[in-house]
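Field reference: sequence -> structure
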Amino acid sequence: MKRYLKMLLLVFFLIIIFCYTLAIGKIPNKIVLFEGENISMKTLLGLEIKNTVETLSNNEEKINDGIGNKKLEVSLFDIFKIKDVDVNIIPRTKVIPVGNIAGVKLYTNGVLVVGMSEIEGEDNKKYKPYENTGIEEGDTIIKVNDTHINSTDDLIECVNMSNGKEVKIKYLHDEETKECSITPVKSMDNEYKLGLWVRDSAAGVGTVTFYEPETKIFGALGHGITDIDTNELVNISSGEFVTTRILNITKGERGNPGKIQGTIEDQTKIGTISKNTRFGIYGTVENLSSLNIDTSKEMEVATRDEIKKGKATILCSLDNGKAKEYEIEIEEIYKDNNYNNKSMEIKVTDQELLNKTGGIIQGMSGSPIIQNGKFIGAITHVLVNEPEEGYGVFADIMLKQSKEVN
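Structure field:
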């Protein structure tokens, strides 16, 4: 009986440690806030967040001491220091919600591994040169021997120049740089190969969310661009936003999301993409006229405390013209969610939009959400079985991401 109780106590103790480890892990090392915005972090009993003067009441503080940087300290029972949190306080700003469809061209940092396959050597035997090297789908090859890899052509050239001798591969796995060695195999077509399928670019269409006149920065999509084969966020070296011409709109229905089809061939460059994140893609506008926006339509970016359930509107362009406003309903708000881009549950209520698209369709991601004259967020997802419903990300999250572009 005593042994059973000891085991129960041990399990209970391990569960507590696990819960505290998760809670500490969720506290970020860096936070960006608007001036006057509340810090709000859910923590467990005993975890305290302090500034240099006093413990925050309920781990919540309103920042009123101006723009700049400050440091908060996380401790356990006010005895053991756990970590520091850097807080960057930025001024409240105004942006222009856009809502226009644009084309995306991304170029990877290195080449992305999207698949693996056996190679039939010149001796008619099957080989897997990548086996036991540690390389997996979703990894990014950045260097072969001493040569930086920027494209698939670079990789092919380096492998063929090896003449079958072992090469050293430097690659990224889960943001960690690793190395391995691979011996290329000479194939039936007289070329040396690694057995890896790779890709060095991605393209598609999406919606530009906002433009900030003061910095010339834009944000779009509200979610990151992931590789279709690996489902990993594409690690980009550069990218372009270009105008697009809508070719067709497929209406969404239950179990079958609709989509906007457009072409990016022979279109005009809008700007440069510098960042692909799970909260959207960001960059700098170089050709403002190509955005086709009214620069007098600036509005304030709302904090999540200002967002209310109820009526709101979205901006989106569905006919190769200027973006139009459509009515939606905000059904739920998740104010403490800083971890993914499902900040709000929304529902399309505008009959004109429902007639055109059936609700939210692919290509509408990034459509800005407006409430009470303020920019509050952007569409990010659709519910496949309820195409008139979906999710949006908070505007403050997107703006804070954009500030890290510089």
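Note: The chain has three domains: 25-90, 94-106+201-403, 118-194.
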